Amino acid sequence: MDSSMTARERFLSVMNFEKSTRSMLWEFGYWEDTMGRWYEEGLPRKQKEKCSIQTDSYKKSMFSDNSICGEGLSWSETKKVPKDIDVHNYFNFDKGIISIPVNSWICPSFEKKILRDEGENVIIIDEKGIKKRTRKDGNSMPQYLAWPVENRNDWERLKEERFQLEIEKRLPPDWVKIVKGYREQGHILCCGYSISFFGSLRNLFGEVGQFLTYYDDPALIKDILNYLCDFWIDLWSHVFMHVIPDFVLIGEDLAYKNGPLISPSMFQEFMLPYYKRITSFLKKSGIRIIIVDTDGNFSKLIPLFLEGGVTGFYPFEAQAGMDIVKIRQNYPNIQILGGLDKTRIAKGKEEIDRELNAKLPFMLQQGGYIPYADHLIPPDISWENFKYYREKVEEFVRNN
């Protein structure tokens, strides 16, 4: 039975803690420079482009973040982030996550344009309306200069111009056919990455503006979150008339190495009510798996996320102190994806063995777990070390 499962059936079984089912063979994703190194070190290159879309021309557009989706990162036809094919084929990984192609954020997007050329850098406006200075080669984080919302008037204008339902503008014309094709192929369907109640505010205000507005104008924060919550429920109610995704992925990214960027008390005031509303709607719609994506150490917020209806998390950054064994011991019923320390993979076979032996026997035996690295694979990991790591992970998964 297990060997004949589709990827979708396997994912649902693993997330349901069915211990007789082997876990998914997935990786989270890669930096573009990592893939370039691996091609030089022996990764067979069977596709003409670096990835599944025209990565070279995309990089030259100066709007790329140079990341490449693995199976554990959601990807869609409309996404301008490339999807790996060669690593997937080399290891015969399971099919990965496909995102239903719905624009649940700013629509229409801002026109991406260069405001000033500074030689090595350019100042641009991106599709989210964020002004930033970025390197032309894309090899560093951008410097953020301005954000689309500074006050209530900005929000009211943005809401009127770019946050109306207008279903026909938010869905590609053939989206039902696209989704049906993915469903027939056994892919895992998700939705909702733009749904967030911390990350959404950061994308509107920037972090400094967001934190100041919590104190200076909490009513504006609550007005925005109320509107977005209603907006997303209306939008996804339409989508769910045609297809019910296998899970919902909420993208927050609300912590750093030493802890969360928002306190538990502020989470209770500014996030928990909206989480309860959105997860209640999702569960009434038949969706039982609700995963939050956040980096950093968010341990203090796990009880509040669970109270808000969340069922799992990824990618559990080990360097931020997110020990998946301890978390599983404290929270035996949450779904855990990732958590394998990528810095150990870079150090060679002995460290890889130490990392996997410390985590995988226990985690796989407990169920509800998909093993992969705790974020994108960086270019300091050689192809030889990555192969060894993935072969060992598969050994554990198949022998569990």
Descriptive notes:
This protein is α/β, with parallel strands linked by helices and about 400 residues long. The chain has one domain: TIM Barrel, CATH 3.20.20.210. The chain has 16 helices and 15 strands. The strands form four sheets. Strands 3-8-9-12-13-14-15 form a seven-stranded parallel sheet. Strand 4 and strand 5 form a beta hairpin. The longest helix is centred in the middle third of the chain and has 23 residues. The two termini are about 15 Å apart. About 5% of the residues have low confidence.
What's the arrangement of secondary structure elements?
Layout: H1 7-15, E1 29-31, H2 32-41, H3 55-60, E2 67-69, H4 86-91, E3 97-99, E4 113-117, E5 121-125, E6 131-135, E7 143-146, H5 152-162, H6 167-170, H7 175-184, E8 188-191, H8 199-216, H9 218-240, E9 247-251, E10 255-256, E11 259-260, H10 264-270, H11 272-284, E12 290-294, H12 302-307, E13 312-315, H13 324-330, E14 335-337, H14 342-345, H15 349-366, E15 369-370, H16 383-399
Parallel strand pairs: 3-8, 8-9, 9-12, 12-13, 13-14, 14-15
Antiparallel strand pairs: 1-2, 4-5, 5-6, 6-7, 10-11
Helix pairs in contact: 8-9, 9-11, 15-16
For the largest sheet, list the strands in their spatial order. 3-8-9-12-13-14-15
Report the CATH topology name.
TIM Barrel
The tally of domains stands at 1
Distance between the termini: 16 Å
Low-confidence stretches: 50-64
Q: Quick check: average pLDDT?
A: 91
Q: Give the percentage of residues in beta strands.
A: 5-15%
What CATH first level would be assigned?
Answer: Alpha Beta
Rg from Cα: 21 Å
Structural class comes to alpha/beta
Total strands: 15
CATH architecture: Alpha-Beta Barrel
Q: Number of helix segments?
A: 16
Q: Profile the largest sheet.
A: 7 strands, parallel
* Fraction of helical residues: 40-55%
Form type: globular
